[in-house]
Every structure is written in structure tokens, then in C-alpha cells.
Write a structure and sequence with these properties.
Helices cover 77% and strands 3% of the residues. It is mainly α and 300 residues long. It has one domain. The chain is globular. The mean pLDDT is 88.
Length: 300
């Protein structure tokens, strides 16, 4: 892998880092399988792109994207808690609905941001660095800030309620906490982070597309699992850092795989989903294989 490709993998890893943190929040903290991600990522991108095209500041556009993502997550939470729809089905319904919502927002399948000022342009002017260096640094700084804020939040009273709701909803209900409100807020917060990631990706690649969220939940889960396998998850801080670094490792692994050539056979971008599935299988089975090898070594 060339150095330029490595910088690109870093950029992608941190650009999607907020999405991975959002997936971690629902998947690990709330124990809520949320497929809304495939719709809320392009939702954030479309809201951001349309807002910038309408003359809003790119920073205001990001906040608007976060608000839209939060509302989308709340819809999933309400469908699950108030209307008693299974969480997986509730998130699928919201994801499907968001496809039409995103088309309505953009008025067409994609919106270009060429010639528009974005946060990437602002940071390049501020830092004076070339784009291949400035974008990874900008997205890394955003992810570190988000990770620190999330660690702090999960140690507050509301954050502890989120943790307890995912671990033991009966216990937290007996303490007088309304788990429905906690779930609605938690899923909303998760999708706000995902939508923020979508806004950053759109501003970085110069366009928002209605299909840019396809496979996002698989990539997010793969990043969380790879991070936990490699770096561990014994504490909240360690698990969040592992999820973030897992996002980078996932993108580096994808870049390495796409550059692989075996004779006349070479891997193309159309094999991306196959590579992702293989990475998840390796990440899930690696701890068990490692444990067996350790016991065999100890027994011999």
C-alpha cells in the first residue's frame, strides 16, 4: 500500500469514526440492533449539502444534519417503545422511509458541493497543509473530541441510565427510570452522530448521494468488532477508543485488500461487501482460536 493510500484510509477511518461511535452506542450500550444507520448517514449528507447550497455556513449545516439524524433515531425509538414494534423491524421501517425522505430533501438522487465552501476548505486555509494531510487531522480531531465527550456523558446520570437500560432494563425500571424515554433518547443520539458523520463525508467528497449509506451498518459493526478484538473492551474508555481505532483498522484492511493481486486475479471495489463479511468472520472467530491455542500451549 502506498503512503497516499494509507493517508486515504486514515481519512476514511476518521470520517466514518462518528458513525462507528453511533453504532457502538446502540449495539453495545443499549443492546439495540439499529439499521436506521443506512438511512441516517445519507440523511445527514443530504441535509448538509442542501443547507450549504442554500447559503448556510458549513458549520450550521453540520448542526442541522445532527438534528435531522436525532429526529430519525427518535422515530425508530418511538416505533419500538410506544408502538411495540420489534426494534429490528422498527429500524428497517425508518431506514426504508428515509430513502424517500432523502430524495425529497435533495429533490434528486444527488447534490454536488463543487464550488461551495466546506469545513474541509476552511481547515485547509487555516492549517496551510495539503488536503491529504489536513483532512485526516481535521477528522481525527473531531473524533477525539466526540470520543472524550461520549466517555464523559456515559459517566453522567443520564449516561449511567443508558448503560443500565442496555444491561438490565428490569432493574433500572424498578429504580423509577422510564426506559422508553432513555431508549428514544439513546437511539436519537446515536443517529445524530451517524448523520454528523454523513455530513462530514459529503463535505469531504464534494457531494451527497441517496445511496451513500448502503452497507454502513455492516461497516460500523465490523469496525466495532475488529476494535474490540484487537484492543479489548474492559472499560468504557477503552471500548470507545477501540471502536474508533477499529474504524481506522477496517479502512486500512479494506485498502490493503483492494490492492491485493494473485496472478491474473485482483480484488475490485465490487468485492467490498465480501471483504467486509470475511473481516467480521475473522474478528469474531479470532478470540476463540487464540484461546484454544493458548490452552494447548499451556497443556503441552
Amino acid at each position: 500500500m502506498t503512503l497516499y493510500a494509507f493517508y486515504g484510509a486514515l481519512e476514511q477511518g476518521f470520517a466514518y469514526g462518528l458513525m462507528v461511535l453511533g453504532v457502538y452506542l446502540t449495539f453495545r450500550i443499549l443492546d439495540f440492533p439499529d439499521l436506521t444507520v443506512d438511512g441516517s448517514l445519507p440523511l445527514g449528507a443530504s441535509v448538509s449539502a442542501v443547507a450549504i447550497s442554500s447559503g448556510y455556513s458549513p458549520f450550521v449545516a453540520i448542526f442541522m444534519a445532527c438534528g435531522a439524524g436525532f429526529l430519525a433515531g427518535m422515530v425508530t425509538g418511538i416505533l419500538n417503545t410506544k408502538l411495540k414494534i420489534l426494534h429490528l423491524l422498527a429500524s428497517i421501517l425508518t431506514m426504508i422511509a428515509l430513502y424517500s425522505v432523502n430524495l425529497r430533501i435533495m429533490g434528486k438522487p444527488n447534490v454536488s458541493l463543487l464550488g461551495q465552501n466546506t469545513v474541509v476548505d476552511w481547515f485547509m486555509e487555516l492549517s496551510g497543509l495539503p488536503q491529504y494531510l489536513s483532512t485526516p487531522i481535521l477528522f481525527c480531531a473531531v473524533c477525539v473530541l466526540a470520543a472524550v465527550t461520549l466517555v464523559w456523558f456515559l459517566h453522567t446520570e443520564i449516561g449511567l441510565a443508558l448503560l443500565a437500560t442496555g444491561d438490565n432494563p428490569q432493574m433500572i425500571t424498578s429504580q423509577g427510570v422510564n426506559t422508553h424515554t432513555v431508549i428514544i433518547f439513546g437511539v436519537g443520539l446515536s443517529n445524530a452522530m451517524v448523520a454528523c458523520s454523513g455530513a462530514l463525508v459529503a463535505q469531504n467528497q464534494g457531494a451527497a448521494d441517496v445511496n451513500m449509506g448502503v452497507g454502513s451498518i455492516v461497516a460500523g459493526l465490523a469496525s466495532v468488532i475488529i476494535g474490540e478484538t484487537v484492543f479489548g473492551d474492559r472499560t468504557i474508555f477503552r471500548a470507545i477508543v477501540a471502536a474508533l481505532l477499529g474504524s481506522v483498522l477496517y479502512r486500512v484492511a479494506i485498502a490493503l485488500a483492494l490492492g491485493l493481486k494473485l496472478g491474473a486475479f485482483s480484488i475490485t471495489p465490487s468485492d467490498l461487501n465480501l471483504i467486509t463479511a470475511l473481516l467480521v468472520v475473522v474478528a469474531l472467530t479470532a478470540p476463540g482460536i487464540k484461546k484454544k491455542l493458548f490452552f494447548r500451549g499451556a497443556a503441552s
